């Protein structure tokens, strides 16, 4: 199973349990289901993390963690994936979400000259908030579905591949095994000696 792959990629559980924004979840973080690496838990964590990564809100990590606790899915994966939207990727991702929102709402994507500053955002928030959040919601749902389905398909493919590899190795060992003498019980029977 692809557990080893996910184990290498996810953050350390002790670091997450002691993170300043997640510490307030307290005993909820000790639920073993939040740390399991199985198909259901990992695909759910992918869906939650990808969804919240697309939503332009502060404290995306906290909302992803609450989702993981509520749905009992993998918490490290859901929290780690919100970092897909980081200070470098936020402008293009949220602009794309804004364009998707204007397309859905049928409004022209005209925001004038874009500036990545708090002053510009507060002055333009009345014009951009609706298409931004509609586009972000749609993008988040689509990415969550793709992440969930893709992870489940990858997991299934990996399990089938490993199963086939084991079968090939088993057949290879049987073919290469030296022809052994008859089992001891058969030899003793041939000599007329009965066990017991």
Short description:
With 196 residues, the protein is an all-alpha fold. The chain has helices at 3-9, 13-17, 39-54, 60-71, 75-81, 90-105, 118-176, 184-190. The longest helix has 59 residues, at 118-176.
Biggest beta sheet attributes:
none
Runs in which pLDDT lies below 50 for 5 or more consecutive residues are none
- Average predicted confidence as pLDDT: 80
Percent strand = under 5%
Total beta-strand segments: 0
| Separation of the first and last Cα atoms | 47 Å
Structural class: mainly alpha
The amount of helix comes to 55-70%
Shape: elongated
Protein architecture, described:
This protein is an all-alpha fold and 196 residues long. The protein has one domain. Helices cover 66% and strands 0% of the residues. It is built from 8 helices and no strands. Helix 3 packs antiparallel against helix 4, helix 3 runs parallel beside helix 5 (75-81) and helix 4 runs antiparallel to helix 5. It is elongated and about 80 Å long. The mean pLDDT is 80.
